[in-house]
Design brief:
Layout lengths: L1 H12 L2 H13 L4 H30 L3 H28 L8 H4 L7 H30 L3 H28 L3
């Protein structure tokens, strides 16, 4: 029961290192994969809905403050620049990058909750959930010791998170 709770919390936060380790553990213990997939779907959809309503609340409560008004103007310009098809692509590609906070910005993009649920979920499956499973299954293929697997998944996911950040910072500080 504790492992199910841990998996639920990992899916809510969607942090790659801890989620990869928990997925490896539940896979190793032969938990029902359909229930794991349904749990992912439920927590992801819950994150999107809660974020959407939190964004609506922030806009309603603090919408007249300078910072929130500035953010709204920037998102309106972004929305006008991207067009309808561009918003869909942005939801699929960019929302998983800042997930679970991406739901907060949906109300300012003039996107319905239904569209957000569909397209952010598709992006989450493609750019987060499938790579997590590929990592777990790929590591399981090469090592049979569970501790080696756990260490490998933590190291690989850490590298996948920090290496692009390191190079993007380094590239941004270079002087031509």
């Amino acid at each position: 029961m504790k492992l199910w709770l841990l998996l639920t919390l990992a899916f809510l936060v969607q942090e790659p290192i801890s989620t990869g380790a928990v997925l490896l553990e539940v896979y190793k213990l032969h938990y029902n994969l359909w229930i794991i997939h349904l749990l992912f779907a439920a927590t992801t959809l819950l994150d999107i809905v809660v974020g959407y309503w939190l964004g609506k609340f922030i806009d309603k409560k603090w919408g007249k403050q300078k910072m929130v008004a500035w953010v709204r103007v920037k998102f309106e310009k972004f929305s006008a620049f991207m067009g309808e098809s561009g918003k869909v692509v942005a939801l699929i590609v960019y929302a998983p990058i800042i997930f679970p906070f991406s739901g907060i910005f949906i109300p300012w993009l003039d996107i319905s909750l239904t569209e957000a649920l569909i397209f952010i979920f598709i992006g989450e499956v493609i750019f987060w959930y499938l790579p997590e499973w590929l990592l777990v299954l790929g590591i399981k293929t090469f090592a049979t010791d569970p501790f080696t697997l756990l260490y490998a998944i933590v190291i690989v996911t850490t590298l996948l998170v920090f290496i692009p950040k390191y190079f993007s910072r380094r590239r941004g500080t270079k002087k031509p």
